[in-house]
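Review box. Two proteins, two foldings.
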Amino acid sequence: MSDVALSVLDLAPVVHGATAAQALQESVLLAQLAERLGYTRVWYAEHHNMPGIASSAPPVLIAHIAARTDRIRVGSGGVMLPNHSSLIVAEQFGMLETLHPGRIDLGLGRAPGTDGPTAAALRRTSDPFGLEDDFPDQLTELRGFLQGSLPDGHPYRGVRAVPQPAHEPQIWLLGSSGFSAQLAGQLGLPFSFAHHFMAENTEPAVRLYRSSFQASETLAAPRVSLGVNVVAAEDDARAEYLAAPANLQFLRLRQGRPGRLPTPEEAASHPYSAAERAFLEQRRASQIVGGPDTVRRGIEELLARTNANELVITTMVHDGEDRRRSYELVAEAMDLAPREVAPPAAA
């Protein structure tokens, strides 16, 4: 499977009994391990008003991680563009690319990454979701700032994003529906689909992206990555035990009760209703959970169905050592080639 890239999506989970500071330190350790194991990139997702996720400000976390790693690509998976002005994002990622040339990814999404009231607070409007309709124009504006190429007659033609990077960060469009898939194809950009929470749309969106694709200066052929939930352990039973807390946390989020990642013991003893069990069984069907052989089979089956170029793996487990071990086992199962890196900087 050496032709398929493996990467990391880290939400910086804040677990029951720990602090956000500890969660961010765990993110450093995971990124350093991923680099040594040969993962291609590590991404951080923008979420807000979620006590169990510490990655609310991806550019800040990207800078922190990039300074503590050597060669792995670091980026956003993603920045929710309608939450920000295009100029601010261009300056932030222009700065990151200038500091860490050739290592920065700018994954962009159009959802707010939060609930309605928080989206209104972020976007300072009574109709926060209406801003998503401007996403294509805002994306064009962002790339114009990054490249210093806004056209004559544009109202911001005289405005420059400083610093201007020597090269544009690698831009990906993220999505969980057909909108971003089609837009990414039309613009000739790489596309990353959120299989980890919208699995039923994966194959239609990937087909739409490929059928819409037009070669560009950025990309000659379609490139697809999939976000996927994976928990690996020494055997299937242990992996299922470790995976349960994230499913309980997601259930509570959908019930309007976001919180920290519970312990495996709490997840095992939770009195699930029949409706809750049905909801979790449906969610569990799209996850890859098990020992090394089970995980390898699950990954190979997903790749056979989608022909994805890359998997961006997210692993939400309570203990940091268990999380790092999961990524080690996945790397071993998929024959990932380790990378020689400089000794890690102090966290």
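Next protein.
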Amino acid sequence: MTNKNHTTLYTGVTSNLSKRVQQHKESYYSQSFTSRYNLYILVYWESFQEIGEAIGREKQLKAGSRQKKLD
């Protein structure tokens, strides 16, 4: 997820993408990172069969530099 200026990035895992994107757009959790930085634009997603695979990929993405994430 990112904001309108594409200056901040958020990476997360969910089992229901459409519901979670809607929650971000509505600032459902008012103190969350995405709410504080107005991150409501979905820029990329991947699908996995197993939650462990998804969590592993999330960790891989979070460990990379901003440039790697943009690439």
